[in-house]
Amino acid sequence: MIDIHAHVFPRISREEARTLAGAGEPWLREGMMMSGDEDYRPVTPELWDAGARLAAMDRTGVAVQAVSSTPLLFGYEAEPGRAADWCDMVNDRILAYCSEDLARLVPLCQVPLQDLGRATETLARAKAAGHRGVHIGNHVGERNLDDADLLAFLEHCAHQDMPVLVHPWDMMAAERMRGYMLPWLVGMAAETQLGILTMILSGAFEKLPGNLRLCFCHGGGSFAFLLGRADNAWHRRDLVRRDSPKPPSAYTDRFSVDSAVFDPRALRLLVDVMGAERVMLGTDFPFPLGEEDPGSVVRACPGLSEAEREAILGGNAARFLGLTESAPRA
Ranges for the Amidohydrolase-related domain (predicted)? Predict the structure, then answer.
């Protein structure tokens, strides 16, 4: 099994976090993610201890994880120069973390996405150092993924043969989603659907190279379940199809999603919509809302052939990440 969606929060001190100068200033206190001087969320050692992670992977039969930063670390609200320095430091820490076993821990970098020039420069440094892809948020402030600079960055990733993992963050309507983890339960799904539909309806996929490897986390959020609604709107309203020459369902071959939907029936729908070749195992490890028994939903999903299960559990991710056939098997 290859897990495309697994997070790390490397050891970062309070003093180092001041690099972001008021933009969240995330750091790690043993057992707690911090935002400035405030407790953010309790966490377990797998998040910062590579040995603990590898032991957990052994227990659950995961051969390889693509390791991406916790979105709290993005730093998109910081001044671009400080954000570039911050991303370099985070990327170095992720690479050091993955160096515990680079055959099993595949590092994904982050970039200062608020500044196109610095983002491409940071990507170049990270790729040269050994990162195998890039992890980005689904928006930067009020700019969605159809923003000209963000599209230019995605095009650059395609030219550099760097796969892109898109994760929701800084969820909408926070003032209306207080308590019950509603930003994670509602906001993340909505943010991801927004990212996908914005790219489709803006015509972004018409402009981007076909070789771009793009994956949206959390099963693409609400996208698959509400695709019929989007197609219906495209066929009936000029203002919906103004910039998109094809209905939304015609673009499902331009991106992938992970399998983190936690219900075999939901996964069945996701595979029906996206195709088995566009779904990859994703667990959101090691957070409590992640899949505790990796692959169990894929194995319980009705109607999948053995070849489709193998593709979702590992084969698709191996191609997405550019891994060799010699990748270890659990």
Answer: 2-323
Angle of helix 80-98 versus helix 116-129 axis, rounded to 10: 20
Inter-residue contact 64 to 328 (CB < 8 Å): yes
pLDDT tens, residue by residue, 132-190: 999 999 999 999 999 999 999 999 999 999 999 999 998 888 889 989 989 889 999 99
**Contact predicate 134/87, CB 8 Å:** no
Question: Whole-angstrom Cα distance, residue 153 to residue 123?
Answer: 10
Distance CA 269, CA 89 (A): 40
Q: Give the integer Cα–Cα distance in Å for 319 and 296.
A: 22
Residue indicated by tokens 């930003």: 183
Cα 303 from Cα 308, distance rounded (Å): 10
Which residue is associated with the tokens 């509602």? 186
Instruction: Tally the domains of the chain.
Output: 1
Query: How many CB atoms sit inside 10 A of residue 229's CB?
Result: 11
Residue 38 β-bridge partners: 35
For residue 177, what are the domain limits? 2-321
Structure tokens at 159: 């030219």
Measured distance CA(277)–CA(118) in Å, rounded: 33
Decide if 208 contacts 187 (C-beta within 8 A).
Answer: no
Q: What is the CATH number of the domain that holds 42?
A: 3.20.20.140
Residue 190 inside a domain? The answer is yes
Q: What is the pTM of this model?
A: 0.95
Two structure tokens written together for 259: 């399998």
